[in-house]
Amino acid sequence: MIRPLVRLESVAVERWLVAGAFTISRGAKTHVDVVLCTVTDGRFVGRGEATPIYYHGEDAEGCAAAIRAYADEAGAGGLSRERVNAQMPRGAARNALDCALWDWEARYTGAPVWQIAGLAKPAPLPTAFTISISEPAQMETDARAAVARGFTLLKCKLGGEGDAARIAAVRAGAPDARLIVDANESWNGHDLEAEASALAALGVELIEQPIRHGEEAQLAGIATPVPFCADESCQDRADMPRLADFPVINIKLDKAGGLTEGIGLADMAHQQGKRLMIGCMLSTSLGIAPAFLLGSRAEWVDLDGALLLAKDREAGLAVRDGLLHPGTLWGLPG
């Protein structure tokens, strides 16, 4: 079947406010700028959203410019996922364009993306809810509020000093919740085994990115009671040879450069016996929806990016009884 030529219709930068502030070891954010990419064949339209990876030096305007430049180079040949993934570098710009093309294909073929991609039909998933780094008393209050909303898995942001006290406070506020933590590269110079053991005693089941990207050799020979998960250290399949000492990887489509690469990375991780976490940046449900399709392949799902905003797009993902339910704004025929 000869498919119609798909071209870029528009690229826009949008600013979405955070509900309060989102705080990690690197600082606080009160808003997020996302890139909204729209493609069309003149009849069917597809949309994709991406959040620039700021610690890679990306910004929304730069990602938008990269998409426009690539579309100009593609010219009369039009856009396709195959060429986009072969010709664009990984990152948020490619994610927005790749996901827009998946969305277009669903509308063009009349089949949902999950079916086209050979993934499981999406079903409600328990998602982690993020507890921003703060003083222990505030984190205890925030954990208690999250549990009251029905969340059973909490992800706590850490910063190095005083982390055990923070998690002890969270445990006091949420005695029955599952806990995972994200050090965001802040444990350099710390005794990794001792830090992990202290958190294991508090029931923590996963520790994200304790060391800086590029310093993965620090983990060689270390045995901890809680598995370490590669986040900043893991972008796409090209990074896998460096991650032998990470038993878990966190797949984020903005890092990987789209759902196409995300599927490939998940396949490779399973082949190597690694366990999976599916994560996200701050974004609206349009940015979360493609990652939601990979959720059934992961042991830990951390897709609360839209839940941390002051408002979301219409027809977005919804939370009921702590479960994230698929929305209808992306990846479905219509």
TrEMBL record:
Residue stretches spanning the membrane: none
Names of required cofactors: Mg(2+)
Mandelate racemase/muconate lactonizing enzyme C-terminal domain residues: 136-229
Keyword Metal-binding recorded: yes
GO molecular function list: magnesium ion binding; racemase and epimerase activity, acting on amino acids and derivatives
InterPro entries the UniProt entry points to: DgoD-like, Dipeptide_epimerase, Enolase-like_C_sf, Enolase-like_N, Enolase_C-like, Mandel_Rmase/mucon_lact_enz_CS, Mandelate_racemase_C, Mandelate_racemase_N_dom
Cofactor, free-text remark: Binds 1 Mg(2+) ion per subunit.
Active site: 157 (proton acceptor), 252 (proton acceptor)
Keyword Lyase tagged: no
Classification via Pfam families: MR_MLE_C (PF13378), MR_MLE_N (PF02746)
CDD domains reported in the protein's UniProt record: L-Ala-DL-Glu_epimerase
GO terms classed as biological process: amino acid catabolic process
Keywords, alphabetical: Isomerase, Magnesium, Metal-binding
Residues reported in the UniProt entry to bind Mg(2+): 182, 208, 231
Family matches, as PROSITE patterns: MR_MLE_2
EC assignment: 5.1.1.-
Family per record: Belongs to the mandelate racemase/muconate lactonizing enzyme family.
Name used for this protein in its record: Dipeptide epimerase
UniProt source species: Sphingobium fluviale
